[in-house]
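Figure 6 in text form: structure in, sequence out.
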């Protein structure tokens, strides 16, 4: 399944929306149907954030990650929210700070370590910039950095081709309509449950964790997973 710099064979659908990436920089072809279905999953994820109606959301991302995050943008608009965009890089940190300063931003989604480092390099205090935003959703290590700095951040993870996002109850969910996830051989593996442009079977995310049977207080029916810290073992 490694792209190796080549466009993977398309298993389903003739109309390609675009390409993202997953895993170790493998190409992720996405059909228009994929985007439509992923948007439906992202609608449930955003509802799990319990944002007020007509919220202004600042979505920050790298271009390569838009295959995962474009459905979040489409879902936000479908729910009637207003979306502003910025690049999650050092080049756009001033614009991020400007948006947070002049607009009543209800959520910033997609914060990464490059963006936090860029703020620090530009003389901005990431915690100072972001702490006034009601909901911060940050990728992996960026979430850990913000929490250590006293910012109440929620977690976003890219598990291969699958997006996982915490709800306001601090449970990490994936879209259980389109994807399955299981612990196998010590790591979490994902498979698509319905046809996609790129079929994924037991893709090893490289992350240790487990799928829980709990019912989340947010009422989202999608699977809840618990991730171990990177490099750590499966949660007890």
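Output sequence:
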């Amino acid at each position: 399944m490694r792209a190796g710099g080549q466009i993977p064979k398309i298993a389903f659908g003739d109309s390609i929306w675009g390409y993202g990436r997953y895993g170790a920089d493998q190409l992720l072809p996405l059909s228009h149907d994929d985007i439509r279905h992923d948007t439906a999953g992202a609608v449930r994820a955003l509802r799990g954030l319990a944002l007020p109606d007509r919220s202004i959301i600042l979505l920050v991302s790298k271009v390569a990650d838009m295959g995962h995050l474009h459905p979040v943008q489409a879902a936000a608009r479908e729910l009637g929210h207003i979306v502003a965009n910025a690049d999650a890089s050092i080049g756009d940190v001033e614009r991020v700070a400007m948006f947070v300063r002049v607009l009543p931003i209800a959520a910033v989604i997609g914060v990464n370590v490059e963006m936090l480092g860029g703020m620090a390099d530009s003389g901005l205090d990431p915690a100072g910039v972001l702490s006034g935003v009601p909901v911060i959703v940050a990728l992996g290590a960026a979430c850990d950095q913000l929490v250590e700095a006293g910012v109440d951040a929620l977690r976003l993870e890219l598990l291969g081709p699958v997006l996982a996002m915490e709800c306001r109850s601090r449970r990490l969910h994936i879209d259980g309509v389109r994807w399955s996830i299981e612990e196998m051989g010590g790591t979490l593996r994902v498979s698509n449950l319905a046809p996609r442009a790129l079929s994924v079977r037991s893709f090893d995310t490289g992350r240790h964790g487990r799928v829980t049977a709990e019912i989340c207080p947010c009422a989202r029916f999608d699977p809840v997973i618990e991730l171990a810290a990177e490099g750590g073992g499966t949660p007890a």
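Caption detail: The chain has a mean pLDDT of 91.
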